[in-house]
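Thread: sanity check for a docking pose with NAP

Original post by kr_44:
Hi all, I'm comparing my docking run against an independent structure prediction. Below are the sequence and the ligand SMILES. Could someone generate the full complex and paste the structure tokens? I mainly care about where the ligand ends up relative to the chain.
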Amino acid sequence: MPPRAGEPGDSMSLSYRAFSLDAVGEPFKIRQMDLPGLKTGEVAVRLQAASLNHRDLWIQKGQYAGLKFPIVPGSDGAGTVEKIGFGVDAAWLGRKVVINPSLDWGPSQEAQGKDFRILGLPDPGTFAQFVKVPAANLAPMPAHLSFEEAASLPLAGTTAYRALFTRGRIAPGEKLLITGIGGGVALFLLRFGLAAKARVFVTSGSDEKLAKAMELGAEGGVNYKHEKWAESLLEKAGHFDCIIDSAGGPGFSNLCDLSRPGGRLVFFGATLGNPQEVPLRKVFWRQLNLLGTTMGSPQDFEAMIKFVAHTEIRPVIDGVYPFEQADEALRRMDAGGQFGKLVLRISE
Ligand SMILES: NC(=O)c1ccc[n+]([C@@H]2O[C@H](COP(=O)([O-])OP(=O)(O)OC[C@H]3O[C@@H](n4cnc5c(N)ncnc54)[C@H](OP(=O)(O)O)[C@@H]3O)[C@@H](O)[C@H]2O)c1
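Reply from moderator J.T.:
Ran it for you. Here is the predicted complex with NAP included:
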């Protein structure tokens, strides 16, 4: 009997619309593409929504390693499984799913292996009507979320989960500082930190964003644009058990001062570049733990999805844009105006 539509061996190719970035600094252009055949263990997901990460902006600006054009960007997506390759359980067909963008993480929980890649470069990403991924990278969509909310979850949620729990080992009652609260990952850190019963403090370059963070449950915060922000935070909150930062740059030294002796400082980004100096004497004398973290292992992703489903956490979304307006969404991210995730609606 010939295979039915969607089942392994169905060779009907799928023609679909996807964003393509053809050179550094260019806007994304919509192109018609054909989905290549599925390999064993792979699925094709019909995407309903995708979300932006700062990575997409770094790629467009040419500030990301390993650029190879043309690129179909996008690491985050949610949709339904349209086709399955050989070896994939037919129960996935038609299911609502979220996609883990960590490809080939490798066997170790400590760090990713040499084949690790993030969906959306070099592999074609989720700013498209279809994406091809290994079935092992799927998770059922948490039932309380819409497609737009689910699409906000994978990269930022996994990064936040690993930073806070796997690396930061946050415990109930501990004091947590999250810098730059307007960011996509930062707002998951706030939601997750509160759910873990930490006392959460934040920084932002905007008083309006600080006020919004308090509404969401942050205990206090300061504007990092004020000259003495670190001193004023210390006065307000005292020292922190755990600090999670993605800005880097000149604030690094302040973070060392804000940590309690023996505290944990977790870094997942360097939006402002490298610090001009690393105050090594403070690091060793105060027994500070500097912890790097990137994305997450399949276990981190799975644990994050379970945590979100169990706590019924909803991602903070800044705005939902029609598919065609990906560049408008990127411009908002570039201006730093967002509070939460920027989402593209791909189909109704
Ligand atoms: N290693 C990884 O796995 C990983 C994963 C995700 C992201 N990242 C990196 O982490 C960074 C954030 O990513 P994202 O996608 O969450 O970006 P995003 O949504 O664009 O957020 C960036 C945030 O950076 C904050 N910021 C800017 N200047 C700051 C400063 N001087 N001090 C403190 N915060 C400052 C802003 O906070 P306010 O608006 O509140 O001022 C802004 O909202 C990027 O560099 C990204 O490449 C790394």
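Residues 53-55, 58, 156, 159, 179-186, 203-206, 209, 224, 246-247, 251, 268-269, 271-272, 294-295, 333, 336 surround NAP (CB under 6 Å). Hope that helps with the comparison, let us know if your pose agrees.
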